[in-house]
Each structure stands twice: as C-alpha cells, then as structure tokens.
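Mods, move this if it's the wrong board.
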Amino acid sequence: MVMTSVDSRRRPEPGREPRAGEARVIRDEDARLWRVREVRFADAKPSLIFECEAGFRRVRTYPENWRSLSDEELQRLSWKT
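Not the wrong board. Structure tokens:
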C-alpha cells in the first residue's frame, strides 16, 4: 500500500518547483516518473518519500531546500537512507 497526500487527478509537472505540502515530480535516467514529497509522522522526524510505479524509497536525512534541488540531485538523494 502506498500512502499519498496528493490528489492523483492533479499531478505536478516534472521540473516545476512544488509549493509547500505538494509533491514534486522528477524523471530518472530510465524515464520513470517519481513523485517526491515530504511526509510528517507523529512519532518520527519528517521524511522524503520517493514513489514510482516500481516502488518507493524513504529518506530520513535531507536538506531543507530539497524543493530547489535539481532532478539529478534528488535522484542521488533518493538512494541515501
């Protein structure tokens, strides 16, 4: 089960910087689209969630300016746990 807080009918455009609380969409080297969003949990620090059709990744340590990172920088960040 994949948790989402973004209305799937209104998808952000790849490369466009999201507003607070909105997902950002990036494209990886295999042309897969990834939705990147910040999720706040009641019992833990916020995390970045990277979701695509193939699966998801959770990054617990990330910079505050993650929304302004390039797609390539976010891809590299997605591999850090």
